[in-house]
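ugh ok fine here u go
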Amino acid sequence: MGRVRYPEAPRLDLVEHLHGHAVADPYRWLEDPADPRTASWTAAQDELTAGALAALPLRDRFAARLAELVHAGAVGVPVWRAGRAFSTRRDPGQEHAVLRVREPDGTERVLVDPMAVDPSGTTTLDAWSPSWEGDRLAYQLSTGGDEESRLFVLDVATGEQLDGPIDRCRYSPVAWLPGGEELFYVRRLAPEQVPAGEEQFHRRVWRHRVGADADGDVLVHGEGSDPATYFGARTSRDGRWLVVSASIGTAPRDDVWLADLAMSPEGGPPHLRELQVGVDAQTAAWVARDGRLWLMSDRGTPRWRLAVADPADPATWAPEAWRDVVPQQEDGVLTDVALVDGPDGGLQVLAVHSVDATDRLSVWAGDGSGRQAEVGALRAGSVSGVSAPPEGGGAAWVGFTDHSTPPSVLRWDAADPTSLTSWEQAPVAGDVPEVRVVETHATSADGTPVHLFVISRAGVPDRPRPTVLYGYGGFDVALTPGYSAQALAWVEAGGVWAVANLRGGSEHGEEWHRAGMRERKQNVFDDFAAAGEHLVAGGWTTHPQLAVMGGSNGGLLVGATLTQRPDLAAAVVCSAPLLDMVRYERFGLGRTWNDEYGTAEDPTELGWLLGYSPYHRVVEGTAYPAVLFTTFESDTRVDPLHARKLAAALQHATSSDAPVLLRRETSVGHGARAVSRTVGLAADQLAFLAAHTGLTG
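structure:
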C-alpha cells in the first residue's frame, strides 16, 4: 500500500530513573483519553484505519463466511437441581446465548434472554446459579462491556424478579443455602469507603437474604485482606458447611477456610477455621452428599489430585492425612470431576485429564481403590465441563468441542462406562469445512518441546501456505481444541492455522505454568518463536507467509514477538494487549497480575519487565511487520492506552512500508460480545492478515 502517512504524535523528552534504570516514555500523554492531543490523534487513527480496512480485498468475503460459521450454535453443560436442568443455548441468528430451564417433563422455557433485556445487544449474561431446590435463580448482567455485574434473583416458575439489581458484584460466586431464602456472594465495598483509584478492588464475602436491602447484609469474610483479593464461596447441599477461598489477584495459590454453619451464631458471621492458609498451592474444597470433604489440589502434586477428608475433624485436614481418590497422574493434568452413583450403589468419580492439551475421561472408585474404566468413546478434543445432579444418580453430562464441532453436550452413564451418547448438539449454520489436524512439537531455545496443533483443509496438498500462529502462554490457561469460526474461515480460504501450547499455560500442570511467569516469562516468547520457526522448517509456511496473533496476555506475547523478532512474521494482530510493562499495574486490573509478571516497584522485578516490555523494546529504523492493534474502549481489564502507546512508537520507528494500524471499538469490553460485533472484528483481522501474507482465497 506504499509508505503510510501516520497522524502526528509528538514525542516527549520524558525519561524517568527507576531503580537505576533510565526509562523513556515519549508517549505518556496517550495514557489520558481526555487529553485533546489523544482525542485528536485517536480520531485521525480511526480515519486511517477505516480507510485501510475498507480497501482489503477479502474483507467482505470473510465477513460473509464468518457470519455463517460464527452463527453456529452453542450449548452449555446443564446444571441439575431437583430434576430441573439449567443451561445456556445460542441458535444460529441469535446475538447472545439465552439461559433456559428444562423441566422434569422435558418442556423448556427461557429464563434470561440478554436481547430481551437490551435489544441493542450490549448487555451480556456474566454468570448464573440456581438454588439447591431449583426454584430460584441468581444471575448477573453487565452492559457496554464494562463487566460490572449486577446481581438479580428470579422465581423460576413465574419469572418474577425477586431481588436486584445489586451492584458491584463483578466476579462474584453465589452459594445458596437450602430453602432459597439466603445466599452467600461477593461484593465490592462502596466507592466512598475505599481510597480514590481503588474502586475496582476491596471485595468482601456477604450473607444476603433475598429481597432485603443489600446494604444490610452480614459481613462474612474479607476485612483486612489485600485490596486485590478475589473470593470464592461454596455451600453443601444440606446447608451445614460453608467453604470460603481467597487468592490475591491471579496468584496461583489460595487460602481456604471451612465453617460449620450449624455451630455459627444466629444472624452473625460464621466461624471460619483455617484449612489452608499461607501455602504456595491451590486447593478447591467442597462437602458432597456423602458428607466427606473433597479436595482437588496441586499441593505437592503440580498435575493435581483429588482427595477426601472429614469436614468435622480438623486432624484430617493436613495434606498428609488426605486420602487420595484420584492420585496425580504422570501423563495428564486433572482438570475437572463429577461425582456419580455406580451400578452397585457405590460412589464413582468421572475425571477429566488433559494430555498434551487433549482431554480424556476416566472412571475412578469413590473409595480410593483406583481407576475402573477409560471412556474410550471421546474424540480428540476438549471437555468444557462435567456435571451431575448433586442429589445423586448414575449419569453425568459432558461439554465437548473440537476444531470443527461447536460446543455440544454428551451424556455418560455408569451402566455403560466406556461409552458416550449425544445429549444435545449445537446447530450449525451452513457447512463446516472438513479439516485435518496434525499434532507436532517444536523445540524451544532451552530444548523444551512445545506442542502445536496445525490445522489445514482436508485433501489439500501440503505446500507452504499463509499461516496464522496463535498463542497465549500465561495465567495457567490451556489452549485446547475448540470450535473457532475464525480459524475455520482462514483454513477454508486456503491457509493454515496453528495453535501453540506455550509455557505459562496449564497444559502440563502448575510447573508448566510457573516456567512461563515472573522471571521466566522470556521462556514463553522463546517457545512462540520456536513454534514459528518449526512451521517454516516443516514446510507449512515461509516467513513472508507467516502471521502471529494473540489477545490480552496473548497480545503481550505477540507484542514481545514483533519487537524481539521482527523478522519472524510478516503480519501481526495484537488485540486488547498489555504492552507497557513498567506502568501496567497503574491501570485497569493490572495490579491483580503482578504475581504473574512481577512489579515495577521492586528493583529486580523491574529488570525482568524491562527485559521484554514491548513498548520499551522498539528500535528506530527497524523494518517492523504489518501490525493491526484492536482495542475496546470499555475494556476495564486492559486499558487501551497500551495499544495507543506502542502503535505510536512503531509508527515513528519503523523503516518498513508495512502499515501499523489501530482499530478501536466503543461500547464493548474485554469479554463477551454480541455475535455481529464478533464477526466484524474477526473479518477485519483475517482480511488484514491475508493481505500481508499473500492469502488470496
